[in-house]
Amino acid sequence: MAQEPQLGQLDYLTVFINKILDEAGMETMAEELRDEFVPKFVAEAYTRLGLALFPLLNKEQLEAYGKLMERDDVEDSMVFDFWKTSLPNFEQLVQTTLNQFATELKNNLQK
Question: In whole angstroms, what is the distance from residue 94 CA to residue 53 CA?
Answer without folding.
Answer: 8
